[in-house]
Specification:
8 helices, 60% helix, two-stranded antiparallel sheet, two-stranded parallel sheet, globular, 4 strands, mainly alpha
């Protein structure tokens, strides 16, 4: 028997006629929580790189731009290009949803490279620190997906299947919740434990590599329960999705970075 849920309004509240959406709140909460944890890590003598307040603020700005611009462009160019060619103004309507993690990742990598170059800091040193806090943002983003009834799962008869009253009739996997737990809670626990209780942080790039590999594994697994994007469908007859393909590439990149981190003196 499925769990019936009344849909949650995507608008959290209105302020002087302006709708404030849960999607925006989730992103802001993710950025602020990640910023707080990063500042706390910077105060520890274990921290491999230290940034002053101005540098921290500049990094936050760079990451926000990287996530938003990269995530949106990634979705537009990879997941639904024909729709946005026909409706170009919808590219700017980010409140309607439609953000690509892999596009956001590319945007963050580029923004971090620019930041590190400007401040004469090793890019991988900064990425290592960000890899520890990034799962917080992933968790918040997936919760926003669930509220918006996006990227829902495949039909199932498991006891925890979800039906949104008035919107869906077929019980489905709550795949955004699966991804919130995997990409958010589990990945955060792994990254924090590696940072705090091992010496892996001394190998520049190792934490970045671990993040790439673990995220890819979790994403490939969770995609088994998630419906593929309707405009793309499965890429192969045996069920490969675009998210899995990009994650497999990400796993290889993470493994290469991890191997290089331990080969360096």
């Amino acid at each position: 028997m499925a769990i019936a849920i009344d849909p949650i309004s995507p608008v959290a509240f209105s302020f002087f006629g302006l709708d404030v959406r849960w999607y925006a709140i989730a992103y802001i909460a993710g950025f602020m929580a990640g910023y707080w944890l990063l500042k706390k890590m910077m105060k520890s003598p274990k921290c491999p790189v230290c940034l002053d307040k101005k540098q921290m603020d500049d990094l936050l700005t760079a990451v926000i731009l990287g996530v938003v611009l990269g995530g949106r462009l990634g979705y537009v160019l990879v997941y639904n290009p024909l729709f946005f060619i026909a409706h170009p103004l919808e590219i700017f309507a980010v409140w309607h949803g439609g953000m690509s993690f892999h596009g956001g990742l590319a945007g963050v990598l580029f923004a971090t490279w620019l930041f590190a170059r400007k401040n004469k800091i090793r890019t991988l040193s900064v990425l290592d620190m960000m890899a520890v806090v990034a799962p917080i943002g992933l968790f918040c983003g997936r919760i926003a997906n669930f509220i918006n009834m996006e990227i829902m799962g495949r039909p199932t008869d498991v006891p925890w299947a979800i039906v949104f009253n008035g919107y869906t009739t077929i019980p489905c996997h709550p795949s955004p919740i699966y991804e919130a737990l995997g990409e958010g809670v589990l990945l955060l626990a792994i990254m924090v434990c590696l940072y705090r209780f091992t010496n892996i942080r001394r190998h520049v790039g190792a934490l970045t590599g671990v993040f790439g590999m673990v995220y890819a594994i979790v994403r490939v697994f969770c995609e088994q329960f998630r419906m593929p994007d309707a405009q793309i469908g499965f890429l192969t007859g045996w069920g490969l999705t675009m998210g899995q393909l990009l994650s497999l590439i990400m796993f290889v990149a993470g493994a290469v970075i991890f191997a290089i981190a331990f080969r360096k003196k």
